[in-house]
Amino acid sequence: MKDLGSIMKQAQAMQERMTQAQERIAALEVEGTSGGGMVRLVLRGTGELARVDLDPSLMAPGEGEVVADLMVAAHADAKRKLDAAQGDLMREAAGPLAGLNIPGMPKF
Length: 108
Fold this sequence. Notes:
This protein is an alpha+beta fold. It has a single domain (about 5-95), classed as Ybab, Chain: A (2-Layer Sandwich). It contains 2 helices and 3 strands, in the order H-E-E-E-H. It has helices at about 5-25, 65-95, and strands at about 30-35, 40-45, 50-55. A hairpin with a 4-residue loop joins strand 2 (about 40-45) and strand 3 (about 50-55). It starts with a helix and ends in a 14-residue tail after the last helix.
């Protein structure tokens, strides 16, 4: 079994990596698309919606329901990408402790 000092050093290093990962997550921006690129939106790492771009052809009368559906689909696409990027960063930060059930540690 490793000595306590070594374990504490590893824990401190992991805590620093986790802090850095959280900063990188906050700076993330991911794009989600739908309708073959007719709707594009950007989510920040915090989950905040940063931008929405709509193809001008969607502005025709009667297209409201289509636009709404495409925006929901683009958001879902961006959210999946954001979740994957956040998980990757956190697993990288956790290093060898990733996947262990340690009380107080996020699961990723």
